[in-house]
Automatic annotation (TrEMBL):
This is Nucleoside diphosphate kinase homolog 7. The gene is NME7. ATP binds at K9, F60, R88, T94, R108, N118. It is found in: Cell projection, Lamellipodium; Cell projection, Ruffle; Cytoplasm, Cytoskeleton, Cilium axoneme; Nucleus. The chain holds residues 89 to 231 of 348 of the full protein. Residues 97-124 are annotated as: Disordered. The active site is at H121. Major role in the synthesis of nucleoside triphosphates other than ATP.
Length: 143
């Protein structure tokens, strides 16, 4: 079984129930979950920018971190067969408009708004899944 980090972004928080239903129907299980509001710049911790570190040079970075800290998110560790790819397929294409054209039943087609406000996040590799799970659910074990 594989694990991945799934996040319901602020624009889709009110659809959490529908998204959980989608996760359940796909035979993935939620093994950890947390609702939190990511902090932004100018604070001791800057969680939104840390989470999307890899995108800091992109033109959309500032919009992205602004959006990601605009309200609560729900982060979940999912487990299942090929969980990483399975969850990304359920999400659909990054841009919600593209998702509505090319992946009609997907989470982003159903609940996303546009290219930035796209309802959900999913880790894209085993390495990023490990990093992102640790981001939201730090292990106290390390010794
Ligand atoms: P995520 O990493 O959130 O699952 P993704 O892997 O589909 O999404 P990335 O390319 O990693 O997409 O981009 C991270 C996030 O940045 C996207 O989910 C979206 O919110 C935002 N984003 C990506 N590309 C654009 C863009 N061209 N314009 C505006 N926002 C974008």
């Amino acid at each position: 079984k594989e694990r991945t980090l799934a996040m319901v972004k602020p624009d889709a928080l009110s659809r959490l129930g529908d998204i959980l239903e989608t996760i359940h129907a796909a035979n993935l299980i939620v093994i950890k979950a947390k609702m939190t509001t990511l902090t932004l710049y100018g604070q001791t911790e800057s969680e939104a920018s840390d989470f999307y570190m890899e995108h800091q040079s992109k033109p959309f970075f500032s919009n992205l971190v602004q959006f990601m800290s605009s309200g609560p998110v729900v982060a979940m560790e999912l487990m299942g067969d090929e969980a990483i790819g399975a969850w990304r397929r359920l999400l659909g294409p990054t841009d919600s408009a593209t998702a509505r054209q090319e992946a009609q039943g997907s989470v982003r087609a159903r609940f996303g708004t546009d290219g930035t406000q796209n309802a959900g996040h999913g880790s894209d590799s085993v390495a990023s899944a490990a990093r992102e799970v640790e981001f939201f659910f730090p292990s106290t074990a390390g010794h």
